[in-house]
Write a structure and sequence with these properties.
heterodimer, A: 381 residues, Rossmann fold, 14 strands, 43% helix, globular, B: 72 residues, mainly alpha, 4 helices
């Protein structure tokens, strides 16, 4: 199976051809937003961090921002800094350069003389990047070049019964064709970690699964949060999920049934093909951001209660098996699997079709969130 | 409302900064004198006079809040 993608000069294959306007710090957000608003083919994002951070958090900010710039869907980046911030643009440039040799331009608001001057110059620089990007042509690549992130949010009882198993089928198919599937949300593994550990490709991976669950659970216990009683969320409970274990047992279905090859640190690049787990919180915007920073070109997002999120860099395909939710939130949700819940169609049959739709989206077909222009939504730990 | 006493910064970033106090740094005017005037300007702004950031419509992406812990 093949898809049409963009070959980057660093060798990676993108499914989109974005010019990214990247703020090093929250003080540069508005300048980036306005540049991107003036150029329909540019994307930007909201960065809440970049200053006033302890060293460990600064490193997380740098890892996520550089990972987003290095994502294969990005042709090139215009990075905007303020000038005096902790997360210096010069250091950010070095970190991005260590991950990719794609086009990178930098402007500092204090050097350029304020927002308007930076916008003016930034629009011209981004315009040039966009024209360079527009001369890239899609070429045919094997589906093994795809890394798809799977996410679930606003889960209800239909998520674990149908939506996640259908996406699990897609994960298995994609992995059997040589591709990579990344799932995350460590807090939504709790209670099901022993089942995942049985599928670990090595004893090291098995140990690491228990380790990331224990670490997150004991860390949260340290601030007085008992996950096993505090979760699931109020919406999950209203949707029929009684305990975090029940939620987790449904959640892990979206990763399919294949061996787990690797456990990735937050926002890290995958080194292995096949099924991989990234250690992230379960907060959806944050978890999607981490996977895109880790190189996912496309995200499949299952929901029961309904969810509207998109991402500026990777298409987010939202799916549900709850017919009422689909009808209620048709503008936000791309695919409806309710016929599987009704027993009219099988998980396998629908899963096969979804894989074809994923290839169409990789080829350029837009998700609803992309068409509506949800271009600013990211979050970092 | 953004203010500076650095004349170079004010000139460079006039689109972003509302008030220039560099005359105080140069010894031409006193802190008390300028402070009194700023209070009057604050009242005008409270009364509805727009800051530069308001006129340009800046602020949409500028909300950040503290956390005591990583996300769940």
């Amino acid at each position: 199976m093949k898809f049409h993608g963009y070959k980057r000069i660093d060798g990676k294959i993108g499914v989109r051809n974005h010019t990214l306007i990247l703020p090093t710090v929250a003080c540069a957000n508005e300048t980036c937003r306005i540049i991107a608003e003036n150029l329909p083919e540019a994307v930007s994002l909201v960065n809440q961090n970049g200053c006033g951070e302890v060293e460990g958090n600064r490193q997380i900010t740098q890892k996520v921002l550089s990972g987003l710039a290095a994502n294969p869907n990005v042709f090139g980046t215009l990075m905007i800094g303020l000038g005096c911030e902790l997360n210096q643009a010069e250091e950010m440039s070095r970190i991005i350069r260590s991950k990719t040799n794609k086009p990178l331009e930098v402007l500092l608001i204090q050097e350029e003389g304020g927002t308007l001057n930076t916008i003016n110059k930034g629009i011209r620089i981004a315009q040039d990047l966009i024209r360079q990007a527009s001369s890239c042509q899609r070429e045919l690549f094997d589906i093994s070049h795809l890394t798809v992130g799977v996410e679930c949010g606003g889960s209800d009882s239909t998520s674990g019964l149908v939506a996640n198993p259908v996406i699990g089928r897609v994960s298995d198919l994609l992995i059997d064709l040589g591709g990579t599937v990344m799932f995350s949300e460590t807090t939504e593994i709790i209670g099901a970690e022993h089942l995942l550990a049985q599928r670990a490709a090595s004893p090291e991976v098995s140990n690491k699964i228990f380790e990331i669950v224990n670490r997150r659970e004991s860390y949260l216990r340290g601030v007085g949060e008992d996950l096993r009683s505090g979760q699931p969320s109020p919406g999950n409970k209203a949707g029929g999920l009684s305990t975090i274990e029940e939620k987790s047992l449904g959640c892990i279905h979206k990763g399919g049934t294949r061996p787990i090859m690797e456990i990735l640190d937050y926002a890290s690049d995958t080194k292995k093909k096949g099924l991989v787990i990234m250690d992230t919180p379960g907060y959806d915007v944050l978890s999607v951001t981490a996977k895109v920073a880790g190189g996912c070109q496309l995200i499949i997002f299952t929901t029961g209660r309904g969810n509207p999120i998109g991402n500026p860099i990777a298409p987010v395909v939202k799916v549900t098996a709850n017919k009422d939710t689909f009808n209620k939130m048709k503008d936000n949700i791309d695919l409806d699997f309710s016929e599987v819940l009704e027993g009219v169609r099988s998980i396998e049959e629908v899963g096969n079709e979804v894989l074809e739709e994923i290839v169409r989206i990789a080829n350029g077909k837009r998700t609803k969130a992309e068409v509506y222009g949800q271009r600013l939504q990211v979050g970092a730990s | 409302m953004k203010v500076t006493a650095n004349k170079d910064t004010f000139k460079k970033m006039e689109d972003n900064i509302d008030l220039d106090f560099s005359e105080v740094l140069e010894g031409v005017r006193s802190i008390d004198e300028v402070g009194n005037e700023v209070l009057e300007e604050i009242v005008r702004i409270a009364n509805g006079k727009r800051t530069k950031a308001e006129v340009y419509g800046f602020g949409f992406t500028e909300t950040v809040m503290s956390r005591i812990c990583d996300y769940v």
